[in-house]
Amino acid sequence: MTTHPRTSFALLTCFTVVVAFYLVGVQPAPLVVAEAFPAGLIAGAWLFVPRRRQLLYFVCAWVVSTGIYLACGRDLFVALGWALAAVVGSAIVAHGITQGPERRAALLTDVDLRRFIAQTFLGSLVAAGIAGAVASVSGHTQWWVAALGVGLAHFATYLVLLPHFLGRPRFPGVASRLERVIQWVVTVSLTVVAFLPLDLGPSIAFGVIPCLGWSALRAPMRETLVQLLVVATASHAMTMQGLGPFAVDPGSSVLRAEMLTILFALWVIACGLTTIPFSLAVGVQRREAWQSRQEQARVRQLVQSATSVAIIGTDAHGHIDLFNPGAELIFGYTSHEVLGLTPSIFLTRAEIERVAQVLGTRSTFVDVAYALASSENESLDLDFLRKDGSVVTLQFSISRIFNDDGKVIGYVTTGEDVTSRVKRQLALEEALAHERLAVENLKEVDQVKDALVSGVSHELRTPITSILGYLEMLEDGGFGPLAEGQAKALGRVKGNSNRLLSLIDDLLMLSRIQDGYLAVESTRIDLRDVVASARDEMAPVLTASGLTFDVELPEQPVAVVGDAERLGRVLVNLLSNAMKFTDRFGAVTVRLAVEGADAVVSVSDTGIGIPEGEQDHLFERFFRATSARERAIQGSGLGLAIARALVQSHGGGIEVQSQVDVGSTFVIRLPLEEALSVIEQAPGPPQEQETAGAPAGR
C-alpha cells in the first residue's frame, strides 16, 4: 500500500471499531444476541487488503472483534465465537464478490448483482451456523435464536454498507434538484414518523420502501445507497432508544426481544433487496440507453459522412425514411424531396424487367426488391435514373433490418457509383475482342517475330555480358572503393542485368529449339546426381522463402543417356516455378523413382494450383496462367515451353497434375539406359528422331 491508501485503510479500521463498539454497546438489556455487528464494514475493508497480508488481517480482525464483545460484557467463549462468525463470514463475502486482480468488485451488471446477493447470503449463513454452534455449546441462548439473529443482522449490514465499497454505474439521475430534495424530505420524514411512538403499527415502516424505490428510479445509484444507509441508521438509532414498531420493552422476555430485532433486520433486508436491484437495473438501463445513443450518433455520423456511397433506408412498407448526402449527390434529389416515397422512382420499367429476369422473379418493383433482399448475392450492378434523367450505374445491395423478435422492421440499401468502371469494362471487352481478332491476323507474321526476337537477343547478349563484367570489376574495387549505397545500387543493377540475361538466354534457346539447332550431349549420367545438383542450387533460396524442401532419392543409380546440364536446367526451372507459386510455409518435394523402363522425376508443391481449363496451354510459348497475372508474379511464359522441349529432346515427356488451392505436380519421364540399348538393337534410326527433338512425351 502507498501512503494514501494506508491512511484511508487505517481510518476505515478505526471507524469500523467505533461503529462496532457502539452497536454492541447500545443493545437493550433483554437482548443476548449481537443484532447489528458491522460485518459489512469488515468485508469492505477485506477488499483493500493485499493477498499476502490477508491472514494477518484475519487474526487482527478476530482479536479486535473479540475485545469489543468482551468490553461490552460478553463471556470469553461467546465473544470468541461471535467474533469468529463476523470475520469468517465477511472473508467469504469479500472473496466471493472479488473477480480477480484485473477487475475490482463491482455492482455493474445482473451477474454482479446475483454474485453479490449469493455471496452475502452465503457469508451470513456461515456466520449463523457458527453463532448457532456457539450458543448450543455455551448455553448462552437457544441456538436457532442466535443463528437467526446473527445471520439476518449480518445480511442486513452487508446490504446497507458493502455496496459503498463496490464499483457502481456512474450515470446522473433524471430527477431535477427540486424533485430530489422533496424525495429526501419525504423519505426521512416518513422514516422518523414510522419510528415515533404514535402506535401506527409496523406496517407504517414499510411505507419507506416505496420512497426508496422512488430514489432508485430517479436518482443516481450512489445517492440511493446513501439514502438507504441514512434510513437504516436512523431507524436503528430510534429502535435502540425504544421507539418505533421494533422497539424492545425492558420488561419483555428474551425471546420476544430477540424476535423484534430479527423482524427489524428483516425490514432492513427488505429495504435493501428492493432498493439495490431496482437502482442497479435503472443504472444498467441508463448505461445501455447511453451506449445506444452513442452508437446511433456514430452510425448517423458515418451515414452522413459517406458522401461517395448512396445509403437509402426504408420502413417495413418500403417508404424512404433515410436519404444520406451520398444519395443526394448521386441521384440529384434532396432528402426532403424523396422522404415518404418508394425507391421505385429511381428505376425504369426496362431495368426492373431485366433484373427480374436475372433473379427469376416477377417483374414488379416489390418482387424485385424482395428478391434482392433475400438473394445470396452481395451486390448487383443496376442502372438508376437521376433527377435530370441521366443514367447512373450503382453496385447495389439491399439488407433487411430485424428487431429483437426477428421481425423485419425496415430495409437499408447501399449503392456505389460504378458508372466509370462499367464503361471501362465494356471498353476493355470491346478492346479484347479486337485484340483477339488482331492475334488471329498476326499469326501470319509469327515467324517474322520469332526471327526478330532471335536476332535482337543475340545482339543484346553481348552488351549485357559486358555490363555484367564491368559490374563485377566495380564490385571488386577495380575502379576504387565503393560506398555502401553505391554497392547496394550496383547489386540491384547486377540482379536486373542477370534477370535480363536469363530472359535473353531463354529467348535464344527457344529460337534454337524452333530452328532444330539445339545441341544436346548424349552421355551416360546418373539422374540422382542431376537431382542432387538442382537441390544444392535451389535449397538455400527455397528455405529463405519459408518453404519446406524435401528430396527423395533411391539408393540405386538411375542411369539415363542425356545432357546433365540441360536436365538440371529443367529441374531448376520447375523448382523456381514451385517457389514463386507457393505461399510461405508451404512445401516443395522432389522425388526420383524407377517405373518400368522409365526414370520418373516429380516436382510437387502445395501452391495456388492451376485451373483445369488452362493446363492444356501450360507448355505453350508466352502462356501465363491467370493466377500468375492476378498475383503479378514475374515470368516470361517461356520456362515450361523450354522445359518440355529439353525433355522431349531426351526422348522423354513431361506432364502436369494440378488442383486450384491444393498444389501442382510436374512429372518428367525419361527412358532408362537399358531401354535405350534395347531400342538401338531394333531396326530404324532412333538417333535421328532424338536429334530432331520431336518424340512425343510418354
TrEMBL record:
Residues 455-674 form the Histidine kinase domain. GO terms for molecular function: ATP binding; histidine phosphotransfer kinase activity; phosphorelay sensor kinase activity. Keywords: ATP-binding, Cell membrane, Kinase, Membrane, Nucleotide-binding, Phosphoprotein, Transferase, Transmembrane, Transmembrane helix, Two-component regulatory system. It is found in: Cell membrane. It comes from the Bacteria. InterPro entries: HATPase_C_sf, HATPase_dom, His_kinase_dom, HisK_dim/P_dom, HisK_dim/P_sf, PAC, PAS, PAS-assoc_C. It holds the Pfam family PAS_9. It catalyses: ATP + protein L-histidine = ADP + protein N-phospho-L-histidine. The keyword Cytoplasm does not apply. Residues 295-340 form the PAS domain. Its EC number is 2.7.13.3. Residues 378-430 form the PAC domain. The chain crosses the membrane at residues 7-25, 31-48, 55-71, 77-95, 116-137, 143-161, 228-248, 260-284. The keyword ATP-binding applies. SMART domains: HATPase_c, HisKA, PAC, PAS. GO terms for cellular component: plasma membrane. This is histidine kinase.
